[in-house]
Design goal:
This protein is an alpha/beta fold. It has helices spanning 44-49, 80-97, 117-124, 195-199, 225-228, 237-247, 263-270, 285-295; strands spanning 3-7, 10-15, 18-24, 36-41, 56-61, 98-108, 130-138, 140-145, 148-153, 168-175, 214-216, 252-256, 275-282, 299-301. The protein contains eight helices and 14 strands. The strands form three sheets. It has a nine-stranded mixed β-sheet, sandwiched between helices.
């Protein structure tokens, strides 16, 4: 890769001087405040071990799922016990750097071949964290109405007579003690029944309630993954934005141990009104280059 040309909210990716596709990073409503980005090319366990303890407010990440995805620099086919042990190793470092009132948002999904995967990884974290909330990231949903069935979002078709299309993933919200306060209304939604505003004293006259733990955030449809999303597994920027705003602490330091092409960093930039510092690690130099080109920042190696 030689250059990334910015075109509005899209990034044109060039390899050896030739345009190979457009990648939409979706940086919207970015505040005027700025975020200090510390982007690091290197192994997160090594990098985290060199950080100060209790120095991070929010961790938002999604590790490789060990399902054979074709990453550029990572073997996604570990033996299951080895993979779980590795998760515990980097999880222990996350626990060490997280502040006592911090939040750790861990995005995990299952597969038909391993339907207990997300729960096994989440369970591996229980000796280091308390599971405070379980959020369901809904990618696609069909709602039956009087006028018919309305389908929203995008799902990946599967050819099976046994399995349903998997239209959601988990976001496990871990905290050190299970007592971390949240700004629930920062991502709140209006009341459908406006009489609730006066009926319930806790509204204090505001037309906003807790969104709950089901978040509908669809992927944008892509036609050629290699060209439009140069990473085999990403989450939408909006997912990380909601996590950061839900935690709600101002002047926050946000961390992603598995940065990829930078969606959590893009989210931190969108949340610059409450985020002061973002730290991200990835072992793949090209992914780092993509992220930093979008962010307009430098990066360093361990």
């Amino acid at each position: 890769m030689e250059l990334l040309q910015k075109k509005g909210l899209a990034i044109q990716i060039l390899f050896n001087g030739a345009a190979v596709g457009i990648y939409e990073c979706v940086l919207t409503n970015t505040p005027l405040a700025t975020v200090d980005f510390d982007i690091i090319h290197g192994d997160c366990i090594r990098g985290l071990s060199g950080m100060d303890p209790k120095s991070v407010d929010v961790v938002v990440t999604s590790p490789p799922y060990n399902i054979g995805k074709e990453y550029r620099s990572y073997d996604d086919k570990k033996e299951h016990p080895e993979y779980v042990a590795w998760c515990q190793e980097w999880g222990a470092q996350v626990a060490r750097v997280l502040k006592p009132d911090g939040s750790f948002f861990l995005n995990l999904g299952n597969s038909s071949a391993n339907p207990f995967f997300a729960f096994e990884v989440a369970s591996a974290m229980k000796r280091m964290f308390i599971l405070q909330n379980t959020i369901h990231w809904i990618k696609s949903i069909s709602i039956d109405k009087e006028t018919g069935t309305e389908s929203c979002g995008h799902f990946k078709p599967i050819n099976s007579t046994r399995f349903l299309n998997d239209c959601h993933e988990y976001v496990f919200h871990f905290t050190p003690e299970g007592t971390t306060p949240l700004d629930r209304l920062a991502i709140g939604v209006p009341y459908a029944d406006k009489t609730n505003i006066k009926r319930w004293a806790h509204t204090e006259g505001r037309d906003k309630r807790c969104r709950g733990n089901t978040w509908f955030i669809p992927y944008k449809t892509i036609h050629q993954r290699a060209k439009q999303r140069p990473h085999p597994a990403t989450f939408p920027t909006e997912l990380a934005v909601k996590c950061i705003r839900l935690h709600g602490k101002k002047n926050a330091t946000v961390l992603d141990p598995f940065l990829g092409i930078g969606h959590s960093a893009f989210a931190a930039k969108e949340c610059a009104d409450i985020v002061s510092t973002f730290i991200g690690f990835d072992i793949d130099e090209e992914y780092i280059r993509v992220a930093c080109s979008v962010l307009g920042c430098e990066w360093k190696s361990l």
